[in-house]
Amino acid sequence: MSVATKGNTVKVHYTGKLKDGTIFDSSQDREPLEFVLGDGKMIKGFDVAVEGMTVGDDISVTIPTDDAYGQKREDMMLDVPIEQVPEDIKPEVGMDLSIQNQQGQPTPVKVVHIDEAKITLDANHPLAGEDLLFDIKLVEVV
Description:
By secondary structure, this protein is mainly beta. The chain has two domains: 9-70 and 127-141, Chitinase A, domain 3 (Roll), CATH 3.10.50.40; 74-122, Thrombin, subunit H (Beta Barrel). The chain has one helix and nine strands. Strands 1, 2, 3, 4 and 9 form a five-stranded antiparallel beta sheet that branches. It has a four-stranded antiparallel beta sheet with strand order 5-8-7-6, with no helix packed on it. The longest helix has 7 residues, at 44-50. The chain starts with 8 loop residues before the first strand and ends with a strand.
């Protein structure tokens, strides 16, 4: 049996859940997720969970916030003067928008507060501040 080690390309099926059981992502109805173990493209806790698995293994693991998307950061909360909001956008709390970061790349944000003077945007990853639960099955070591 093949064992997943750092540097291997692996394929896994997974279901990601929050503590309350809400499923936020799953590969069950699509191709398995393929990635290189330890290359930094996956959250740290996911890499750690898969490393050492043998093809066919099923595990359930809780990945703490700091090994997932990290804590919510106050510096990722952006206040934008209401007059700077484009006229074609009618912001509502909970609305997902995209802004350009300092490098000119699009950054997803969520509207979290609106008042007469400003809107507050949250640029944290949507799963920041959350412990994540994953059911993982190692399908293949390529």
